[in-house]
Design a protein that fits this description.
Number of helices of chain A: 17
Strand content of chain B: under 5%
Helix content of chain A: 40-55%
Shape of chain A: globular
Oligomer: heterodimer
Largest interface: A-B, 67 and 55 residues
Strand order of the largest sheet of chain B: 1-2
Structural class of chain B: mainly alpha
Number of helices of chain B: 15
CATH topology of the largest domain in chain A: D-Maltodextrin-Binding Protein, domain 2
CATH class of the largest domain in chain A: Alpha Beta
CATH class of the largest domain in chain B: Mainly Alpha
Number of strands of chain B: 2
Radius of gyration of chain A: 25 Å
CATH superfamily of the largest domain in chain A: Periplasmic binding protein-like II
CATH architecture of the largest domain in chain B: Orthogonal Bundle
CATH superfamily of the largest domain in chain B: MetI-like
Number of domains of chain A: 2
Distance between the termini of chain B: 56 Å
CATH topology of the largest domain in chain B: MetI-like fold
Largest sheet of chain B: 2 strands, antiparallel
Shape of chain B: flat
Strand content of chain A: 5-15%
Number of strands of chain A: 12
Number of domains of chain B: 2
């Protein structure tokens, strides 16, 4: 009978738990009910944002509540799952959010699912946003996203090593010019070779990500992969020159370049294993306080090739889905995000999208990366990635395998020719 | 060596064995020692294999646990270290202090409990019916239940999310529980079927002779006998929901986001917060470990249920 009693107790307990859970289900534990505005719209909105960008918009949301009376609930999702979630909701026409923070590479994919926000792009607004971003936000003649924050790769280098008297004199003697943050490809190669000694490496080479090579393509004077008419130009001389430069650094970088991605490169630099890295500017402010390189890092603009300095911006845009019932409140929030754009700089990520927001902080201690970032983003050769919905597919199936084979010693001309054919097939 | 010597050799006593001991007893003594030594070495090998398996299974969790106590720079050390160079609780403070974490725990518990109860409520009668009546349609049903396990969750996740939204259940734990039940129900039916198979029909017949109805016999006799199996099934159903990520990603937002999604949020496109991620993962594994320990006896009983089938 004791077993029976146990079972009875378990069943009763289970029943009670279920009852409690079912009652609690009505409201859930995460916060208020999703916004459901009537025809006039609601002053409470849901903002879908990638986990890394949530903090960027927290200050804006607080200010927006004060100024415009708009309550903001954030739906935070991991980057890897966000595209699937967006695709799922946009395709069903039943969206659970009123504003979405979209990665720039997703804009072409979702252009038909989001509303134009042309009225927010006044002349003053356009002047205060980096030119490449203004261009990218405009899809098929309409502005469909307001840049919330942007990033670009700059040079992070070991200031302590660069300022060391012995290193300076040795470098001068060997290369015939002063040791300083590199401005050209040649200088980057020389400095990388110089610091590759005693278990240390001059730089890293990232075979598992494509953006850095594409920045070098821009520096060599070519559009990335596709020209303005969507012709595949990946086999032109600039792409080859950039790829050869990229591969040439492998001898001064830790082994296994084919597998090195952002996280690995950041770890190597923060651990003091590399003297320089080309990395997203936000990383400057994210060096752990207990890292061997903390307080010893300098920042410089991205290196320049024959077309000068160039970088690939990494912006996120705020967009309003066509199917939201809270269009007014959503647009008010986007306006707040522009007006109080500098609030993001005080967050952990520490980025903004307005030139004036970066300039406001550029001379303050701890924000030394902003001047190089502004210089890189304002450079005439800087350009955003091609506006094609197939871009991510091109990256995953063509560009990264191409880079991995190249850094492993593959024939760059043959690899580029092969890549051209693959991309043409993908775009058919 | 000649044939004669081969034939006579077993008859000759060994020079270093006492001649006063009977030959058979001596042989038995030698055999027993040999068997004992063999058993010892087998046991040693088994222990080594067991230890290796434990290390293999336990190491990732131990590494996760140690990482959760590391300082930020220690978590990304090159080469990595197993033990923290400096122990800290900072990661736990950061992880648990992050907005939405406590709510996500409550959501995970709600979802897993509802999903487990739903699975059992549906699987127990289904499995009982299939095993006791053995109708052709029952056999088709149980095979069909297995086939649903072969469909990749992503294939049904997106339509399921749309369906839940269209019936007004978007972003609720009940919607996620129903989705999780689609994962655990087929397994629960199969598990419960095997447990019901192991219960002799005579037990039920005896109960009905004593005046029980069929339902009464099920409730008063069969269910107590398979309680270990129910515990095992409950654990599997609970775990399936507790750790599920994809449906939670597609179907939850503000009100019902579960902890696996929150854990994944520590990996962003701008970096990976190893310390906080491992701290939250370690905390999230505690309820499952406790549940397993609490139901340990039932689980063992359930796992050996089939072994006593007469």
């Amino acid at each position: 009978m004791s077993t029976r009693n146990t079972i009875s107790k378990l069943v009763t307990l289970g029943g009670l738990c279920t009852a409690v859970a079912l009652v609690a289900t009505g409201c859930g534990a995460g916060g208020p009910a999703p916004s459901s505005g009537g025809s006039g719209g609601s002053s409470s909105i849901n903002v879908l944002v990638e986990a890394g960008g949530h903090a960027e918009l927290t200050g804006v949301a607080e200010q927006c509540k004060k100024d415009a009376g708009v309550d903001v609930n954030f739906v935070e999702l991991p980057y890897d799952g966000m595209f699937n979630r967006l695709s799922s909701e946009f395709s069903s026409g039943n969206v659970s959010f009123d504003v979405a923070a979209l990665d720039s590479v997703w804009l072409p994919s979702f252009k038909d699912a989001v509303q134009p926000i042309d009225e927010l792009f006044t002349d003053d607004v356009k002047k205060d946003i980096f030119p490449a971003l203004v261009k990218e936000a405009n899809v098929d003649g309409h502005f469909i996203g307001m840049p919330a924050w942007t990033n670009a790769e700059i040079i992070l280098y070991r200031k302590d090593l660069f300022e060391d008297a012995k290193n300076k004199s040795d470098f001068q003697a060997k290369y015939g010019y002063e040791l300083a943050a590199p401005k050209t490809w040649k200088q980057y190669q020389d400095i990388s070779a110089f610091f590759t000694k005693d278990g240390m490496y001059g730089t890293d080479v990232k075979g598992a990500v494509e953006t850095e090579w594409l920045a070098h393509v821009l520096q060599a004077g070519s559009p990335m992969v596709l020209d303005k008419d969507n012709n595949v130009v990946i086999d032109n001389a600039a792409h080859k020159e950039a790829l050869d430069f990229y591969v040439s650094l492998a001898k001064d970088a830790p082994s296994g370049a084919a597998q090195v991605d952002w996280a690995a490169a950041q770890n190597l630099f923060n651990q003091g294993k590399t003297a320089m890295t080309r990395f997203w500017a936000h990383a400057y402010r994210q060096i752990p306080a207990d890292a061997p390189v903390a307080g010893k890092v300098g920042a410089a603009a991205m290196v320049g090739g024959s077309a000068g300095v160039a970088g690939v911006p990494g912006p996120w845009y705020l967009s309003v889905p066509k199917t939201t019932k809270n269009t007014d409140a959503a647009k008010k929030f986007i306006k707040c995000a522009y007006d109080y754009n500098d609030k993001g700089i005080e967050s952990k990520l520490g980025l903004a999208s307005r030139i004036s927001a970066f300039q406001k902080y550029q001379d303050q201690p701890g924000y030394e990366s902003f001047k190089p970032l502004i210089e890189t983003l304002n450079a005439p050769a800087t350009a955003t990635r091609p506006a094609t919905a197939k871009w991510q597919q091109i990256v995953d199936t063509v560009l990264i395998p191409l880079l991995q084979k190249a850094v492993a010693g593959g024939d760059t001309s043959a690899l580029l020719a092969d890549a051209k054919k693959q991309i043409q097939d993908l775009l058919k | 060596m000649s044939n004669a010597s081969l034939a006579t050799k077993p008859e000759q006593p060994s020079s270093n064995v006492s001649t006063t001991e009977p030959p058979m007893r001596r042989r038995r003594g030698v055999n027993r020692e040999g068997l004992e030594a063999g058993r010892r070495s087998t046991r040693t090998i088994l222990w080594i294999l067991l230890a290796a398996a434990m290390v293999l299974y336990g190491f990732p969790f131990l590494y996760l646990l140690f990482t959760s106590f590391k300082t930020p720079i220690d978590t990304i050390a090159v080469p990595p270290t197993i033990l923290p160079r400096e122990w800290t609780l900072e990661n736990y403070t950061n992880a648990l202090g992050r907005s939405g974490v406590v709510a996500s725990f409550i959501n995970s518990i709600q979802t897993a409990v509802i999903s487990t109860v739903l699975s059992l409520v549906l699987a127990v009668p289904a499995a009982y019916g299939i095993t006791r009546y053995k109708t052709p349609s029952g056999q088709v049903f149980i095979m069909a239940a297995l086939v649903t396990r072969m469909v990749p969750p992503v294939a049904i996740g997106i339509p399921l999310a749309s369906m839940m939204a269209s019936v007004g259940l978007a972003d609720t734990p009940i919607a996620l529980s129903i989705a999780h039940t689609t994962i655990s129900l087929p397994l629960s039916i199969w598990l419960m079927s095997s447990f019901f198979e192991s219960v002799p029909r005579d037990l039920e017949e005896a109960a009905t002779v004593d005046g029980c109805s069929r339902l009464g016999a099920l409730w008063r006799v069969v269910i107590p006998v398979v309680s270990g199996g129910i515990a095992v099934t409950a654990i599997f159903a609970f775990l399936a929901s507790w750790n599920e990520f994809l449906f939670a990603l597609l179907m939850t937002a503000i009100r019902s986001q579960t902890t696996p999604v929150v854990i994944a949020n520590f990996q962003t496109q701008f970096g990976l917060d190893w310390g906080s991620m491992t701290a939250l993962a370690a905390v999230y594994s505690i309820p499952v470990i406790l549940l397993t320990l609490l139901l340990q006896r039932k689980i063992v009983a359930g796992m050996t249920l089939g072994a006593v089938k007469g």
